[in-house]
Design goal:
The protein is mainly α. It is built from eight helices and no strands. About 20% of the residues are buried. Belongs to the sigma-70 factor family. ECF subfamily.
């Protein structure tokens, strides 16, 4: 694998994946850069043994970079809240709840889905990825991603009660 062409070959793919996780293009750009920095640092650890594709390996690095960023953001928020002497944000949160009731219901129902169905749903609806891209990221086929997405939609239509894989 040529270290110089990694970004050219996989940059857009990883960026789209990170956009689905962050729902923020600027954050996704920053995390994409960090992903490729980490990938180049540890490229000697990637062994193509027929089990893992390079794009899957990059997506796992991207997901770890994103999770680290989420963890840092949570720590920062906790610190800011502990330093703040303001009253709790109960009323603004309540107002936000009523403004975003449909979103809340959607995400609440999505929590009843299996992790795979939930991730496919997010990648498709929030990330606007193709079923082929979703299959590649999650190690399945395009058809598998399409069928699983359809089943997740059906389960969501029923209120997400059924938690089968």
């Amino acid at each position: 694998m040529d270290k110089n062409s990694i970004y050219e070959d996989y940059g857009d793919f990883v960026f789209k994946y990170l956009v689905t996780l962050t729902n923020d293009r600027q954050s996704a750009e920053e995390l994409t850069q960090e992903t490729f920095y980490q990938a180049v640092k540890s490229i000697d650890n990637f062994h193509h043994d027929g089990q893992a594709k390079f794009s899957t390996w990059l997506c796992s690095i991207a997901k770890n970079v994103w999770l680290q960023e989420v963890h840092r953001a949570k720590k920062k928020l906790q610190l800011e809240q502990s330093l703040s002497e303001q009253t709790p944000l109960f009323y603004s949160l309540e107002e936000e709840y009523f403004r975003n009731e449909d979103k809340i219901i959607f995400f609440k129902n999505a929590q009843h889905l299996s992790e795979v169905k939930r991730e496919i749903l997010y990648l498709r609806l929030l990330g606007d990825l193709s079923f082929k891209e979703i299959g590649t990221i999650l190690g399945g086929t395009e058809n598998w991603a399409r069928v699983t997405f359809y089943r997740a939609k059906q389960q969501m239509a029923k209120g997400g009660e059924n938690n089968e894989s």
